[in-house]
Amino acid sequence: MNKEKKIEILRDILKIRTINSNEEEVAIYLKELLKEYGIESEIVNYSPSRSSLVADLKKGQGRTLGISGHMDVVDIEDENKWTYPPFAAEIVDGKIYARGAVDMKAGLAALVIAMIEIKEEDLDFNGKIRLLATVGEEIGMYGSKDLYEKGYADELDGVLIAEPTSKKSAVYSQKGSILYEIIAHGRAAHSSMPEEGINALELLVDYINLANKEFGKIFSKGENKVLGKSLNAHTVINGGGQINSIPEKVVMKANARIVPEVPGEVFLKTVNDCIEKINSQSEGHLELNVIQDLPAVESAKDNDLIKAIEEVNKEVKAMPTTGATDAANFSRVGKKIDLAVYGPGEPRLAHTIDENLPVDEYLEYIEACKQIILKYLK
Ligand SMILES: [Zn+2]
Q: Which of 134, 221, 226, 346 is deepest in the core (most CB within 10 A)?
């Protein structure tokens, strides 16, 4: 495939608005592209207008490498603040400007093109390349969860996630992430007679004080050599309505980042115990709602996929990360998967205004990707 076509493919998918929705349009585009080159693929519907895409390329009986990227992007907030329109994918001074240029349509396009070129050039490998293009990664990681539940991750031995890591690093382990909310139910009253009501906000304050103490205990007991300690942050609070009324309902959101030594069940049991304690001491009521529960992924620093990346890029440093990716869902299959998160783009430009990526970095990554896949499946 020539350079112009590679750039055109990236620009085409960047122009498709997939702000936490509409990924099906990208999936169909990629399906047609793959078909042009003789690769069949399958649209896997998740919900209306949200569909993942799975495609296989197989030669011999060797292991299976998943190559994966998400098709959704985050919101653009104020379009007027962008120097170049976020869905025009303009190229200025060698950089492509668009929402998703870094996180992560360039990585995704590169994986697809690497797969196409391996087929087009009839390059030798032994095993299966499985493309997994997902929906809803940014909020909820719905696509990878859906693909895992439908069995598409069952045979993976390794997974390469093309999230931006720049050329400098490749990630081999990641913390898990639990998103949850706690709803406090109290009783409204005039603030001059607080004894008539139950203050939902103060129920939560009591809860936070208790929970922080209990989290401290379980987190200090379970430290991971590579990933460090688990963390919890209470991040959002909404509730009350009137400055001189006792608030009846307050909702708090929080995010825990966990290591394998503190599995999700243990963390959530602690949350539940704290809630029960507060509930037993009050007429009010706290309620837990778990939004997302992603396990940590632990893989060796010298796993075969990382080794393949290091052979292709001598500058790269293997490191763990506190962030989570779709790999968390793919790794639920229970066996140890060789994990590598490695993709084009400066991670600090993800989710920013004027998100941009040097076109050369994208093109270089396609080449690197081909070599990494072939080395892993040799
Ligand atoms: Zn991403």
A: 134
